[in-house]
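In response to reviewer comment 3 from the previous cycle, which asked for concrete evidence that the modeling workflow produces usable outputs, we include below a single protein chain processed end to end. The sequence was submitted unchanged, and the resulting structure tokens are shown without manual editing.
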Amino acid sequence: MTSPTSPLTILLLFLLTTLAGHATAEDPSESPLPTDVLQAVKEMCDGYAERIMPGILEYDEDGDGKVQLRPLVSDLMKRGFARTSPFPPGMDDELERSKFARNQEWQANADREIAKEFGTDDEGNILKIGVSSAIQSMMLGYLNRMGPLDVDKDGKLNFKEYAMGFPVTDKQEVDEDGHTEEQYDYFKKNDKDRDGFIKGKEYIGEQDYWLNLLVGKFVGILMIPKADTNGDETLSREELAAILPDAEELPESVPLAESVYWIRELEEEEIAALEKNLSKLPSET
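The workflow returned the following structure tokens.
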């Protein structure tokens, strides 16, 4: 699992809050992105919605294929959604506590923003197209904001410009130019044609990676009650091992009321396994 201040956690939080904080202002018809990029974004977000909807339909108590947004959010909040986690036992250092509290507040705010943007019908029921549109809006909000990083206005990002979008923490080692290994790695991963620039659809590759993590976490949050097979409102070590069989380290137990906090700290591979294994469990409804 990631520590509260690991590079993965901080970079993920940075993107998540950037996406969520700019969701309402973006309309695909007004985006400066090329048409082929916009179409790729739509297809990608439709795929994310397909992954999210089965989790939402876990809360369809009437079996009519409808789930209202407000009751769903209220239910999720009982497990920590849109809330901040208490300090872990033994975290006494003031700097660590400050960073942990700030990160938790970022995540809680992002939860609120993401849920608020889900499209509903006139009765407040969540629509799959509304879920896709919400993710598109958040993604375009970030992609359109890449513009200011393009200092020389050539329509693409060189490494130095790209690196400005990833804040360096005081826990990360930097080279003589002030850059981190993570910045170099992410740039190399997304510069698909190896021409030294991030451009066109290469922008999307970066966001696809992070949104995949965010969607995986959200699906896990939606489906985690299915892991409580004995209904005692606590996830035992055995129940946790059933959904994360390859995890190197698991807590003795996790109260269902704190399960969101636990999911927030999972590693990338664990998030993927959690979504996959929860999806295989029988539905509660």
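The chain has one domain: 7-280. We consider this sufficient to address the reviewer's concern, and the full set will be provided in the supplementary archive.
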